[in-house]
Design brief:
Blueprint lengths: L1 E2 L4 H12 L13 E4 L9 E4 H12 L7 E5 L3 E5 L16 H8 L6 E6 L2 E5 L21 E5 L2 E4 L9 E2 L8 E2 L20 E5 L5 E7 L14 E7 L2 E7 L2
């Protein structure tokens, strides 16, 4: 900042010129004011506060540098700043850039900014870790899926083959794919308990259910022995003759 000093004689002459002869003396004025007129046109005099007079005086007479700002500091008094310092409410930049933001925030680290409290911020690594809501990875395998390789880490599985069922790999292990017996992408579901060696049938809901009998064995009712009879039954297109008596 450039410090400028005004000769007291010039200041008194300027104030006197502003006051003119329109307001009779003595006159009671508010503290820290002078009598004059700020507008460049004729008119009645007015009480001008120092904090209005002094900046206009400097800007007209002294602080006319391009893009300069008139400031007042305890250490240096009135003067011009180009660029306007951060301490004076500026960015300390002469052109828009990321440096301006660095100047006013004081940020020097890299990553993502996280507000941690009133007026406090911290930086999060790039890529954003899992603990901060990210994936913690910069790339994955095309055709794969992300999975938790640990409680706080995520990785990508290998490419999963199209149209095959996905099979879990267990804790810390990537999912993979299974196989299918046919060539469609429709999968059957079961209902109820399935018994080893029994045949299955399809219920009204399309589920595979236990048929309650081994394959190839007809599920005939038990015949009473109180009468003599001969019967012929069919199972899966096979004729079976059964003869029994008392």
């Amino acid at each position: 900042m450039r410090k400028l000093t005004i000769p007291i004689a010039f200041f008194i002459a300027f104030v006197a010129a502003l006051a003119g002869a329109q307001v009779p003396f003595p006159q009671t004025l508010p503290a820290f004011t002078v009598v004059g007129r700020m507008a460049p046109t004729s008119g009645p005099s007015e009480a001008i506060p120092f904090d209005v007079l002094v900046p206009n005086l400097f800007s007209v007479g002294f602080c006319n540098t391009a893009n300069a700002t008139l400031v007042n500091s305890t250490a240096n008094g009135w003067g011009c700043q180009v660029p306007l310092a951060v301490a004076s409410g500026g960015t300390n930049c002469t052109a828009a850039s990321g440096t301006c933001l660095d100047n006013i925030t004081g940020f020097a680290s890299t990553g993502f900014v996280k507000r941690t409290g009133a007026g406090t911020y911290s930086f999060i690594a790039d890529p954003v870790p899992v603990g901060n809501g990210g994936l913690g990875i910069t790339f994955g395998t095309s055709g794969g899926i992300p999975y938790f390789s640990g409680s706080t880490t995520i990785a990508s599985s290998g490419a999963l083959t199209a149209n095959l069922p996905v099979i879990g790999g267990g804790a810390g292990v990537a999912p993979t794919v299974g196989t299918r017996s046919g060539n469609t992408t429709s999968f059957a579901t079961t209902s109820g308990t399935l018994t080893n060696g029994n045949c299955v049938k399809i219920d009204a809901s399309g589920n595979l259910v236990d048929n309650a009998a081994a394959c190839g064995v007809p599920n005939f009712p038990t015949l009473a022995k109180s009468a003599n009879y001969t019967t012929v039954a069919s199972d899966n297109g096979k004729c079976i003759a059964v003869t029994t008596g008392a």
